[in-house]
Write a structure and sequence with these properties.
5 helices, alpha+beta, about 60% helix, 4-stranded antiparallel β-sheet, single chain
């Protein structure tokens, strides 16, 4: 019974917010959520997030019941939710767009950031691609040197490298 109720809650959240729920973090660094400046940044960011195609539902800490989304300690940090629908590739693109759009509303005192599964995956993919490119830039010259040493001739060593390069270009 407990799992059934939990599953029903998850389905209700998914139906309302979409397949993925990300968090928008507003950090006032000394500026209270009660200030007009903070409110303006949040309102602009929420409006921008709602205009992003693929963002299904966007909540604000100023919505009814949103008081729970404000840090009780210093009242300088608040969060909102954004739901994203679509397959993994669509969600990754929507998350990237959200991140770009919301970063425009940061001020010197108020930071706006988005976090969630797709954004973390986007960052991990960028790091992996960068690492792979760096490894190839180091690995190919090292392999060429080793082939020259092992085969004793530059021509014999260059042939496998040319085959690798042409095969990589075909992909």
């Amino acid at each position: 019974l407990h799992l059934s109720i939990r599953r029903q809650r998850q389905m209700c959240i998914r139906d309302r917010l979409g397949a993925e729920q990300d968090v928008i973090v507003y950090d006032g660094a000394g500026v209270s959520v009660d200030s007009p400046e903070f409110r303006q940044v949040v309102d602009q960011a929420v409006a921008a997030a709602r205009s992003v195609e693929g963002a299904r539902e966007v909540t604000s800490p100023y919505d009814v019941g949103g008081e729970q989304m404000v840090s009780p300690n210093d009242r300088g940090v608040a969060v909102g939710l954004v739901g994203i629908d679509g397959d993994m590739a669509d969600r990754a693109m929507v998350a990237r767009t959200l991140q770009h759009e919301l970063s425009r509303f940061e001020t010197a005192q108020i930071k706006v950031a988005v976090t969630g599964y797709s954004l973390i995956q986007n960052d991990a993919t960028e790091i992996q691609n960068s690492d792979a490119q760096r490894a190839e830039m180091i690995g190919i010259p090292v392999a060429l040197i080793l082939l020259v040493i092992a085969l004793g001739a530059v021509t014999a060593a260059v042939v496998p490298c040319l085959l690798y390069t042409s095969d990589a270009a075909d992909e």
